[in-house]
Design a protein that fits this description.
Blueprint: H1 10-21, H2 34-45, H3 48-54, H4 63-91, H5 95-103, H6 109-142, H7 147-164, H8 166-194, H9 197-201, H10 213-228, H11 231-235, H12 241-272, H13 282-289, H14 291-317, H15 327-341, H16 351-376, H17 401-420, H18 428-445
Helix pairs in contact: 2-8, 2-12, 3-12, 4-10, 4-12, 4-16, 5-16, 6-7, 6-14, 6-15, 6-16, 7-14, 7-15, 8-12, 8-14, 10-16, 13-14, 14-15, 16-17, 16-18, 17-18
């Protein structure tokens, strides 16, 4: 500080530091190889929510059918995740920034808002699961029980980590994944030493639970869709397209199949051991497999939820190329909302409905994005996507009305096929196909399909264009 310069407050110094070190607006050039990308995705999805999703299916459907739907749904949903993630590798842009290409520079605010709501819901769910798990251990040791209190404390810690320690968490998370994998191996070994796969497969189905193979498939695909909102954030860190696609494909699919199959196996073990199959309750499997599992659940939730909250804040901060929205105040506002929301424990009983809403909101969005980038734009977005206004992605007043309408029709179709006219092949696949075809039909009818030989290169390798500015 020079003489005569008024001292700055601690808040201002922290705010400036966070703005300098948060992901800036615009493209990034990745440096990570295939193995590192695989570890990032493996770590990200080895979390208690994925494991507990597997507990939803058994004994509603048979264990072999549950495993088959987990594998099939992960392959289908993971393909969408990889394609959207590759857009991040090719351009250097985050997922919500990429929506500007299809929805318009202002129209993208709509999927950004939906993304913040979705990530907020995920942060609540994970904080509650951590809180319930900690409460179980404390109650066992002391008799004191307050799951709401522990959920709030867990989320408070997450918000602090998102503000001060997200970079460190990102470095630690892959190592934590190895610990989780070791404990998963222990649970599989314990379950299969006690009961053979044939014993678990022979558990009578509980038809009153209301599950079918198709319903399980939709939930597994919706889980992949929920992770796709962050796929380009992760994959733009990849050095090459192959590193991003292979790493994310193997990492995500392996972690999801392992975690969900573990959940289905663990709940089968509980049933055969005389326990009650209470779905999506971490205390049920902690009671069967011991306190070390509770520690792993807590640490994995802290790590993953920190990155979820950070991604939520970054989505808002990077919504427009301007410094008017800064990191610290945004983190404080969203953090307070996330802490208050973590008291709503009833959400855990509505987890399947929560995943259904995510699917309805984002399956059409990603169908539109994939068709727009790979087909309509011929795998090219220009630097106009970095503008604040005007240019190629301005459409009508900054909004691509056609994309918004297709989004609404797709979301409506998803809810219709889920709750009103159940489809024999589920809601997620028809919704994606319908949204993709409608958007392609609009692009073809309006003659927007590109036949120009645009350079298919990273945005940082394109020449600056007059009028393109970051306004920062």
């Amino acid at each position: 500080m020079t003489a005569g310069t008024p001292p700055t407050s601690a808040y201002r110094r922290l705010s400036d530091h966070l703005d300098r070190n948060s992901d800036g607006y615009g493209p990034l050039r990745g440096t990570l190889g295939t193995a590192r990308m695989g570890m990032i995705w493996l770590a990200a999805n080895l979390v208690v929510t994925t494991l507990l999703t597997g507990t939803l299916f058994v004994p509603g459907i048979s264990w072999p059918l549950a495993v088959a739907m987990i594998v099939l749904g992960t392959l289908i949903g993971g393909s969408v995740l990889v394609l959207v993630g590759n857009m991040g590798t090719r351009t250097g842009l985050a997922t919500m920034s990429l929506t500007k290409g299809s929805f318009g520079l202002r129209g993208s605010f709509l999927p950004v808002a939906a993304n913040v709501i979705t990530l907020m819901g995920w942060s609540w769910v994970q904080a509650m699961l951590a809180g319930v798990t900690v409460n179980f251990l404390v109650e066992q040791a002391t008799g004191f029980s307050s799951p709401v209190l522990f959920s709030v404390l867990c989320q408070l810690l997450v918000v602090c980590l998102a503000i001060f320690g997200h970079t460190g968490i990102a470095r630690v998370e892959p190592w934590l994944a190895l610990v989780i994998l070791a404990f998963m191996a222990y649970i599989f070994t314990t379950a299969f030493l006690a009961y053979s796969p044939a014993d678990i497969a022979a558990i009578p189905q509980d038809t009153a639970a209301g599950w079918t193979g198709v319903a399980a498939l939709d939930v597994v695909i919706a889980t992949a869709i929920s992770w796709t909102v962050l796929s380009a954030e992760f994959n733009r860190l990849a050095r090459t397209q192959s590193a991003g696609m292979i790493g994310s494909g193997i990492g995500y699919m392996l972690s999801t199949v392992l975690a969900m199959t573990l959940g289905a196996t663990a709940i089968g073990y509980v049933v055969l051991d005389g326990g009650e199959a209470v779905p999506f309750d971490p205390t049920v499997i902690v009671a069967s497999f011991g306190a070390p599992l509770a520690v792993v659940i807590f640490l994995s939730v802290m790590a993953t939820n920190t990155m979820v909250v950070y991604g939520m804040v970054a989505s808002v901060v990077n919504m427009v190329p301007s410094r008017r929205v800064t990191f610290l105040p945004t983190a404080i506002v969203l953090g307070v909302i996330s802490i208050l929301g973590s008291t709503w424990l009833a959400l855990l009983n509505q987890f399947t409905a929560f995943l259904t809403v995510i699917g309805a909101l984002f399956i059409p969005v990603f169908a539109i994005m994939i068709v727009d980038y790979y087909v309509v734009r011929s795998r090219h977005y220009g630097r106009d996507i970095l503008r604040a206004s005007g240019g190629e992605y301005w459409y009508t007043g900054g909004v691509n009305v056609a994309a918004v309408l297709v989004w609404l029709l797709g979301a409506g179709a998803s809810l219709l096929l889920t709750y009103v006219v159940p489809s024999p092949i589920g809601a997620t696949i028809p919704t994606f196909v319908l949204s993709a075809l409608l958007y392609f039909a609009w692009a073809a009818a309006s003659r927007r399909i590109s036949r120009d030989g645009h350079p298919r290169v990273h945005l940082l390798d394109l020449p600056e264009q007059q009028g393109v500015r970051a306004d920062r």
